[in-house]
Amino acid sequence: MTGVAWGAGLRGRHIGVKYLVRDKIFAIGDDYWIEDEQGRHAFLVDGKAMRLRDTLELKAPDGQVLITLRQKMFSLRDSMTIERDGEALASIRRKRLSLLRNHYRVTLVEGTELDVSGRILDREFTVEYDGELLAHISRQWFHVRETYAVNVVREDADAALLVAVAVCVIRMAERED
């Protein structure tokens, strides 16, 4: 699905498609594959080195750019933007801080807001829309130390967007740490 398909009263089937991320180093210029549960390449995260802003591209296995993630290197308030086809799709900002959980708000250009909360650096957090779970990010399913899953639980969810949100908030939390 290319767009966001959530709306008030829309309750999708829960299917639980997991994307596996090998959590090595999220450094500028690093490229890594995100795989589906069958071990097939689902997305390539392509880090763009030597730019004024931290930039990543989420690509399909055929090389098509699905989403571009950008972060300003020197800004007063840490934020990232998500773009699709050269157009802004969403922005992500830290919402508030508590002792055990981090909170981020994803604001889509049409005004929809997603809430991201949990232990980001531990890779244990959720993405919700209007109180409904869209994705659960967790290491608990794996014994491999450097792996976590982005479990997309809604059939009508934009998987590329939810993977991009997970990558963004982890990157932002690591920079703040």
Spell out the blueprint of helices and strands.
Elements: E1 14-22, E2 31-36, E3 41-48, E4 53-59, E5 65-72, E6 79-84, E7 87-97, E8 102-108, E9 113-119, E10 124-129, E11 132-138, E12 147-154, H1 159-176
CATH names the topology as: Porin
C-alpha geometry = globular
Q: What is Rg?
A: 15 Å
Going by CATH, the homologous superfamily would be LURP1-related
* Structural classification: mainly beta
Q: Count every beta strand, where a strand is a DSSP E run of 2 or more residues.
A: 12
CATH C-level: Mainly Beta
Describe the structure.
By secondary structure, the protein is mainly beta. It has one domain: Porin, CATH 2.40.160.200. It is 10% helix and 51% strand. It has 1 helix and 12 strands, in the order ββββββββββββα. A 12-stranded antiparallel β-barrel has the order 1-2-3-4-5-6-7-8-9-10-11-12. β11 (132-138) and β12 (147-154) form a beta hairpin. Residues 1-14 have low confidence and may be disordered.
Tags for this model:
Porin, 10% helix, 1 helix, mainly beta, 51% strand, 177 residues, 12 strands
Gist of the model:
By secondary structure, this protein is mostly beta strands.
